[in-house]
Design goal:
Alpha-Beta Plaits; four-stranded antiparallel beta sheet; 5 helices; 43% helix
Length: 134
Protein backbone atom coordinates (compact mmCIF):
# COMPACT_ATOMS: atom_id res chain seq x y z
CA UNK A 1 0.00 0.00 0.00
CA UNK A 2 1.40 3.38 -0.93
CA UNK A 3 2.06 5.97 1.73
CA UNK A 4 -0.51 8.39 0.25
CA UNK A 5 -3.20 5.69 0.30
CA UNK A 6 -2.39 4.92 3.96
CA UNK A 7 -2.63 8.62 4.83
CA UNK A 8 -5.94 8.92 2.99
CA UNK A 9 -7.40 5.86 4.72
CA UNK A 10 -6.22 7.10 8.11
CA UNK A 11 -7.81 10.50 7.48
CA UNK A 12 -11.10 8.88 6.53
CA UNK A 13 -11.10 6.67 9.61
CA UNK A 14 -10.43 9.47 12.07
CA UNK A 15 -12.48 12.18 10.34
CA UNK A 16 -14.96 13.73 12.75
CA UNK A 17 -18.61 12.73 12.52
CA UNK A 18 -19.60 16.40 12.41
CA UNK A 19 -20.04 17.79 8.92
CA UNK A 20 -19.36 21.46 8.24
CA UNK A 21 -22.93 21.98 7.04
CA UNK A 22 -24.69 20.26 9.97
CA UNK A 23 -27.37 22.39 11.65
CA UNK A 24 -26.05 23.55 15.06
CA UNK A 25 -28.32 21.24 17.08
CA UNK A 26 -27.21 18.22 15.02
CA UNK A 27 -23.54 19.18 15.36
CA UNK A 28 -24.06 19.55 19.12
CA UNK A 29 -25.72 16.12 19.31
CA UNK A 30 -22.87 14.47 17.42
CA UNK A 31 -20.33 16.14 19.71
CA UNK A 32 -22.19 15.33 22.93
CA UNK A 33 -22.96 11.69 22.21
CA UNK A 34 -20.23 9.06 22.24
CA UNK A 35 -22.26 6.91 19.86
CA UNK A 36 -24.54 9.13 17.77
CA UNK A 37 -25.90 6.12 15.86
CA UNK A 38 -27.49 4.74 19.03
CA UNK A 39 -30.75 5.93 20.62
CA UNK A 40 -30.67 9.21 22.50
CA UNK A 41 -33.06 11.74 23.98
CA UNK A 42 -33.07 15.51 23.92
CA UNK A 43 -34.57 17.85 26.50
CA UNK A 44 -35.10 21.35 25.11
CA UNK A 45 -36.10 23.98 27.69
CA UNK A 46 -37.92 27.06 26.38
CA UNK A 47 -40.00 29.94 27.68
CA UNK A 48 -42.89 31.27 25.64
CA UNK A 49 -43.22 35.01 25.23
CA UNK A 50 -46.04 36.38 27.38
CA UNK A 51 -49.33 35.79 25.60
CA UNK A 52 -47.80 33.33 23.09
CA UNK A 53 -48.33 30.13 25.08
CA UNK A 54 -51.34 28.89 23.09
CA UNK A 55 -49.69 29.84 19.79
CA UNK A 56 -46.60 27.81 20.78
CA UNK A 57 -48.75 24.83 21.74
CA UNK A 58 -50.67 25.01 18.46
CA UNK A 59 -47.51 25.30 16.34
CA UNK A 60 -45.97 22.36 18.15
CA UNK A 61 -49.10 20.22 17.76
CA UNK A 62 -49.01 20.76 14.01
CA UNK A 63 -45.37 19.64 13.83
CA UNK A 64 -45.83 16.81 16.35
CA UNK A 65 -48.35 14.95 14.21
CA UNK A 66 -45.94 14.69 11.27
CA UNK A 67 -42.80 14.19 13.37
CA UNK A 68 -44.21 11.13 15.11
CA UNK A 69 -44.54 9.49 11.65
CA UNK A 70 -40.84 10.01 10.87
CA UNK A 71 -38.52 7.05 10.67
CA UNK A 72 -36.20 7.31 13.66
CA UNK A 73 -38.60 9.19 15.96
CA UNK A 74 -39.34 7.33 19.19
CA UNK A 75 -40.97 10.22 21.09
CA UNK A 76 -41.78 13.87 20.42
CA UNK A 77 -43.67 15.74 23.13
CA UNK A 78 -44.18 19.24 24.49
CA UNK A 79 -44.50 19.37 28.28
CA UNK A 80 -45.66 22.39 30.28
CA UNK A 81 -44.07 23.21 33.63
CA UNK A 82 -47.00 23.18 36.09
CA UNK A 83 -45.15 25.52 38.47
CA UNK A 84 -43.97 28.14 35.97
CA UNK A 85 -46.49 29.40 33.42
CA UNK A 86 -44.94 29.81 29.99
CA UNK A 87 -42.08 27.41 30.69
CA UNK A 88 -41.98 24.31 28.47
CA UNK A 89 -39.81 21.33 27.67
CA UNK A 90 -39.59 19.54 24.36
CA UNK A 91 -38.84 15.85 24.91
CA UNK A 92 -37.50 14.13 21.83
CA UNK A 93 -36.17 10.60 21.53
CA UNK A 94 -34.44 9.38 18.37
CA UNK A 95 -33.02 6.06 17.18
CA UNK A 96 -29.85 7.96 16.25
CA UNK A 97 -28.49 11.18 14.83
CA UNK A 98 -29.64 10.26 11.31
CA UNK A 99 -33.28 10.48 12.44
CA UNK A 100 -32.69 13.89 13.97
CA UNK A 101 -30.94 15.06 10.80
CA UNK A 102 -33.90 14.04 8.64
CA UNK A 103 -36.30 15.68 11.09
CA UNK A 104 -34.44 19.00 11.00
CA UNK A 105 -34.76 19.11 7.18
CA UNK A 106 -38.49 18.26 7.12
CA UNK A 107 -40.90 20.99 6.01
CA UNK A 108 -43.02 20.73 9.17
CA UNK A 109 -39.91 21.20 11.32
CA UNK A 110 -38.54 24.18 9.41
CA UNK A 111 -42.01 25.75 9.61
CA UNK A 112 -42.04 25.36 13.41
CA UNK A 113 -38.48 26.63 13.81
CA UNK A 114 -39.29 29.71 11.71
CA UNK A 115 -42.01 30.64 14.22
CA UNK A 116 -39.76 30.38 17.27
CA UNK A 117 -38.51 33.98 17.02
CA UNK A 118 -42.06 35.26 17.50
CA UNK A 119 -43.02 32.68 20.14
CA UNK A 120 -40.02 32.18 22.41
CA UNK A 121 -37.97 34.24 24.81
CA UNK A 122 -34.18 34.02 24.34
CA UNK A 123 -32.39 31.39 26.40
CA UNK A 124 -33.28 28.01 24.93
CA UNK A 125 -31.18 25.19 26.39
CA UNK A 126 -30.68 21.71 24.97
CA UNK A 127 -29.41 18.65 26.85
CA UNK A 128 -28.62 15.34 25.19
CA UNK A 129 -28.95 12.02 27.00
CA UNK A 130 -27.56 8.75 25.68
CA UNK A 131 -29.65 5.61 26.05
CA UNK A 132 -28.25 3.08 28.51
CA UNK A 133 -28.45 -0.63 27.80
CA UNK A 134 -29.63 -2.16 24.57
Amino acid sequence: MTRSLVVLLAALLVAPLVAADDPPVLADAKKALKEPNKPFAMWVSVTAKKGQEKALEAAFAECQKETRKEKGCLAYDLLADPETPGKYGFYEKWTGAAGLETHLKAAHTTKLLAKFGDLLEPGTTIKFHAAVGD
